[in-house]
Amino acid sequence: MSDGARHIERTFVMLKPDALERSLMGEILGRFERKGLKLVRLELRRVTKELAATHYAHLVDKPFYPELEAYITRGPVVACVWEGIDAIRVVRNLVGATDSILAAAGTIRGDFGVDKTENLVHASDSPESAAVEIRNFFNESTSTL
Length: 145
Ligand code: UDP
Ligand code: MG
Fold this sequence. Notes:
Layout: E1 8-15, H1 17-21, H2 25-35, E2 38-45, H3 49-55, H4 65-72, E3 77-85, H5 87-95, H6 108-112, E4 121-123, H7 127-137
Antiparallel strand pairs: 1-3, 1-4, 2-3
Bound molecules: uridine-5'-diphosphate and magnesium ion (MG).
């Protein structure tokens, strides 16, 4: 195979405030479930400004960051961790491209959004960021699954 070995991975996913405001939580979580991923963490919570700056550390200097901060802190989010074969890539494929207008039909962003900032869902982009993001949102010492 040209695309490398396949491993069981965990990936961090966050349903952003617009997903909850638009009552798309069940639809979005259902897509991950139906793909065959296993849910191993789930929490309804708020993202503080401090957590936003940690989570989006690579973006804090961008001109759009104030808009991104206002968006991600304005209402509850669902933070979750999904496990499965190649879960990081699998979930990124289900989520679609960052700009919802460019995201392919059939992806979450492609099916439900039209905005580049308000794009419904976050998903880790690498094993390294997945590990950091899971640690930022969940206390791994409480792990039982
Ligand atoms: N974002 C934005 N404007 C941009 C790029 C990104 O508002 O030009 C927001 C958008 O909500 C995106 C998040 O910042 O999901 C994180 O950006 P990233 O490039 O990591 O995109 P993602 O990994 O979420 O597709
Ligand atoms: Mg990203």
